[in-house]
Every structure is written in structure tokens, then in C-alpha cells.
Amino acid sequence: MQVESRQTENVQGGFPVSAGILLGLGLGGFFDGIVLHQVLQWHHMVTSAGYPPDSVRNLEINTFFDGLFHAVTYVFVVAGLVVLWRHARRGHARGSTRLLAGSLLMGFGIFNLVEGVISHHLLGLHHVNETVPPSQWIYWDIGFLVWGALMLAAGWALTRSGRRRTAEAPRERPQKSRSAREARRRPQPVEAPIPMAERRRDWEPRPGGRRRSDPQPV
What we know:
The protein is mostly helical. It is built from seven helices and no strands. It has helices at 2-12, 17-39, 56-89, 97-122, 137-168, 178-185, 196-202. The longest helix is centred in the first third of the chain and has 34 residues, at 56-89. It is elongated. The relative contact order is 0.15.
């Protein structure tokens, strides 16, 4: 029972998986928005929802929704950093690189699956690659989902392996704060020695064979 509780403590003191998932969600959104929307220009946010990029007005509308999309991914990244910072302040525990990489892959894969199912298939807002003939859009959409599922599975496997390694590794002792170190360095007050005259007076024999320092009978 003690070994199990110690392993559980080490796992909880390792890398926070929730922070990695949030960061992975944000990085997945940035990859989609920067690479697919802007660099390759395969699609925009609402190009298949009645606003094809064939006029300046439609491009303005798509740019606006692309900006909202990036704002949401930015919130994911900030939330992940907040969780990571709050966990780091609680103590210096040994983490695992596999937990970081695995949780990032899980968040990235979750983003691809959620965004692919909702935006590509359910709402039809856009498709992965709209530069190819429409009859081929489905293949790119399915490939996007397969890619997300593979990242999610790989991330889950890495996270599971990282948890085992973190549980087996000894937890590092938290560093003492500066105030604690300074308090240790301060000289402790030294009690003044008792004068020899008072010591002799306390040990002088009294009538009855008792000394002054002996307890008095009740």
C-alpha cells in the first residue's frame, strides 16, 4: 500500500497532462490557420458556407472568421501555460519528456478530429483542400481525420509510457526558499551563562540533607 501511494504521488507530481492537451489544441489550431489557411490557402473558415474566395467582400468575411478562429486557439495556448505555471509553482517534481510530447500529440489529434468532424462534415464550412476538384475534397477530409486519430493514439501511448516512468522515478525534493535559507543562517540567540555564585548557592546543603534545587516535599 505504501509503494502504491508513493507511486501515485509521483505521478501527480509529474508533468500536468491537461496543460499539454491544451497546448496541443492551440498548436493544432495554429497549424491549421497558418499553414492551411494562409500559407497554402487551401481553404478559409467559411469558404464552403456561401462565401467562396472569389470577391473582396467574401475574402474580408473569411479573414474575419479566420481571426476569430485564431483567437480561440490563442486562448487554448494561454490556458495551457497557466495550468503549467500553476503546477510548476507547487514544487519541483521530476517530469517525463514523453508526458509532454504525448499530451501535445493528444491535444493536436483531438483538435483535428473535432474540427474535421464539425467544420468539414457536419457544418460544411470548409474543406481541407479546396484547390482540387470538389469530387476529391472527401479524400482530403478523411485523411485529415486519419491524421488526427493517429496523433491521438500515439499521444495516448506516449502519455501512458511517461506515467509509468514518472511513477518509477524518485521525486526530487523541493528547493528551499530564500527566506528559509536566510533564517537558517541567522545566528541563534545564546543564553547567558549562570554565574558561579548562583550555582553554588543552589547546591548548598540545607537542613535535612536536601539542596535548594531539590523538589520540596508536599
